[in-house]
Every structure is written in C-alpha cells, then in structure tokens.
Amino acid sequence: MRLLTFDLFHQLTFFPSWFPVNSYLVEDEEALTLIDCALPFSSRGIVQAAEQLGKPITRIVLTHPHSDHVGALDVVKQKFRDAAVIVSRRDARLLAGKTDLDPDEPQMPIRGGIPKGVKTIPDQLVQDGDTIGSLQVVSCPGHTPGHMALFDKRSGALFAGDAFQTRAGIAVSGQIRPLFPFPALATWNKKAACVSARKLSQLKPRYLAVGHGNVLEYPEQAMARALTQAEQKLGMMDHA
C-alpha cells in the first residue's frame, strides 16, 4: 500500500504500480471519513493508516458500490462499529446486489463488479446537495445510476470515484484508455457520465482524487480536455 498526504486528506493506493485502487481518508479535527473501501484485503492497510493518523474512522462513504470500492467494507465496519456507512439513495439497491432499473432510467445493463454478499447495511442514504461533515454530495450518475462525488470546500478536493480516471491518462468514465480500460468497461451509461463530468468540472477543484490513478492538482484544464474528447466521441458537442 502507498500512502500519500495532501491538504486535509490522505490517498491510500493498493497495487499502485499495475492496478491502482484508491481509498481516501479525509481529516476532521477529531475523526476521519473514509471514502471507498477498495479490495477485500485492503482492510488491514485502511485500519493501519487510521491508527497511524491517530484518529478513528467515524464515517464510511461509498462513491458507488462496485466490488473494488466496497471490498473491505464489512471488515472495516466491524473494526469501527460506530462508523456511519453512507451511500447514495439510488445506489443502496446496488450495494444490496440488486441491478433493477427505474422506469425513467436508460434501460442499459449495469456493468462492473456487482457486490455479492455484503453484510453491512447503510446507516444513511444521501442525495445531491446533502452534506457529510465537510463534504458536499454531488450526484454524478453514469458509471452507475447512483454514482456520487464528494467535494470538500475547505481544501477544494473533489473525490470523484470513477466519474474520471487518471491512470493511463485522464478520461471521463466510459472512455477507454487502452493501458487501463477497466473503469470504462464497467460504465453503465457513457452519455450520462459525460453530462456528470461537465457538472463536476464546473466545481473547479483544487485536487481531483479518483478511484484509479494519481491525484491531480489544479486539474481544471485536464478535466476540460478529457471532457472535450469524450463529448466528441459521443457526438455531444452541440449539447455542451
């Protein structure tokens, strides 16, 4: 595991050299918020990082419930029993392994690693505009129907889950980077992902922290470039 520290948050990367999967610990004065739970074996590294920082994890927030973002959830929740587990209202069904779609949603199959046998039941369901401590919930469907990002106004950090990737070059969810195609292959709706990426870019973050790849500082131009490429491929430029 690789641990990198930024302004009020820490990036935990598992398999950093060949298949990077990230979790984040966001600091408050007396506690930590964990964003995403990586892979099943990641629980040890997450717990060790919290112990190293000397603060308990009091919130566990999931950007979306794909298996590489919820793998260590059950074990971490057992370790920090008082931690509130938080997911979007829409993706709570996906966390429970249910892949049904609402009638008003594009009827495309939900892709990616659908969790199986997760025992943890969310304590709180959130939606666009809600706040979780210092974090603002930003709904950004596309990768999954209920995908969400978290924006920390204190540091300007945008925790974007798989709405973007930075591994093998920055890309909007659904746009394949041949050296690391996995987030794109796991994307439910490319056009929705593109609309969401534009919404996120308008936040003008100081940091872009994603599920796969390095944290980008001052990412505005890189996000705009990735968004333009995605819109061109999808024929969306007239609607941008």
From TrEMBL:
Q: What is the lineage of its organism?
A: Bacteria, Bacillati, Bacillota, Bacilli, Bacillales
Any matching Pfam family: Lactamase_B
Q: How is this protein named in the record?
A: MBL fold metallo-hydrolase
| PANTHER family registered for this protein in UniProt | METAL-DEPENDENT HYDROLASE, METALLO-BETA-LACTAMASE DOMAIN-CONTAINING
The superkingdom listed in its UniProt entry is Bacteria
- State the InterPro entries in the record: Metallo-B-lactamas, NDM-1-like, RibonucZ/Hydroxyglut_hydro
| Annotated source species | Sporolactobacillus sp. Y61
Residue ranges of domain Metallo-beta-lactamase in the record: 20-212
